[in-house]
Amino acid sequence: MTHTLAINGIMLHYRLEGPEHLPLLVFSNALGTDLRLWDPLLPHLAGRYRFLRYDLRGQGLSDCPPAPYAIDDHIGDLAGLLDALGLRKVNLCGLSVGGLVAQGLAARRPDLVSRLILCGPAGKIGPAGPWEAHIRSVREGGMASIADAALAFWFAPGFRARHAAELALWRHMLARTPLEGYVGTCAALRDADLSRELTRLTQPSLCIAGEQDQTTPPDLVRRTAALIPHGRFEVIANAGHLPCVEQPAALARLISGFIGEQEMPLNRFEQGMEVRRSVLGDAHVDRAGASQTDFDAPFQSFITEGAWGSVWNRPGLSKRDRSLLTIALLAALGHKEELALHLRASRNTGASLEEVQETLLHLAVYAGVPASNAAFRIAKDVFDAPAEQDGR
Prior knowledge:
By secondary structure, the chain is an alpha/beta fold. It has 18 helices and eight strands. The protein is elongated. The two termini are 30 Å apart. Mean pLDDT is 92; it is low at 388-392.
C-alpha cells in the first residue's frame, strides 16, 4: 500500500507491502531513481519477506526541498520513517547513495538495523571535484542532458544491448527526476565520507559489487567490506551498478542466503515468552509467573516452548489468524476459562470485534448452536468489561 508521512518537515512517499508476520526488508534507492528501482527484485523474494520502499527526498513522489542536501538529511529521513512506523531491527538494503544512507543509519541508530545488505557500497563515492562539475553540467543542461551517460554507468554493456525497450524506461525515470532533488543529493554525495563509521558497524553486513560496475567497482567494494567488522564481500557476474535490475535472481539468492545464515534463533523458551507476552499481555504472563510453583513449572515450560515458541511462532499464519482459530477451537471444546482469556487477547492480536463475531457465527454451523451460544455469552462479558480490568 502506498502512503505518505510528514518526516523532518517534508512528505516522504513510501510503500509497505506483505504480511506482517514475515521478516521485513527495507530498501533505500540510488541517485536518480525512485522506489520502482526494486520492482524486478521483489518477485524473487515474495512470500518470504515483507517490503518497505520509499523515495528519497527530492526523488520520486517525495517532497523536493531546495538543494543542497547533506547525507545526514537522508539518514534522518529514513530514521524518522522507521520511527513513525514503529519498526525496529530491520534488514536494510541500500544501493549506491542508499548504501551510504544505510551505513550511516546502522552506525548512528543500531536499534533500527539488524542486518545490512549494501549494493555498490563505499565510505565515500568519488572526490568532490567531479561532483561539482556534474552539478554544474546538470544545472546548465537539465536532466535529459546527462541521462545517456548515466545509463552507461548504471548498466553493463550486455544488458544495454539486449534490453533497449527496458532501458528507455529507466532513462525516463532518471530524466524525470526533479533537477533540484538530483543536484541536492549530488551535493550530499560530494560532501559525504562515512569511512570511519564503517569501522564502527556492529551489524552483519553483506557488500555486493556488480562485476562490471564502473561507479563503485569490485575492488572498492572489497575494500569497503574489509573495513566493516562483520563484513562479507560478494560479486554478481554480468552486472553493473544496478544488480537489482540486471541480475535480480542472483541478488535475491545472496540476500536470502545471507539473512538465513545470520538468523540465530533465540532459546525456544525465550522466543515463546516473547510471543506469549505479545498475545496475552504482560499483566497475564506476570501473574502466571508469580503463581508458578515447582509442581506446575514443567507444564509452564512446555506451554511456553511448545505452543508459544513453536506453533504460535511459525510464519505461516499471522497472530490474528491464530487468535481466531484458537477462539473457535476453545469455544467448540467448551473450555470457557481459556476462551475468555483468548477473547481478551484478541485486543493484542489485531482480531477485530466483527471478526470474532463472524468466527462465533461460523462455530454455530460446524460445532453446534449450544457451543456458539455459550461462546457469545462469554464474549459479551469480556468485551463489555473495560480493557483495564485485564491489566491492559
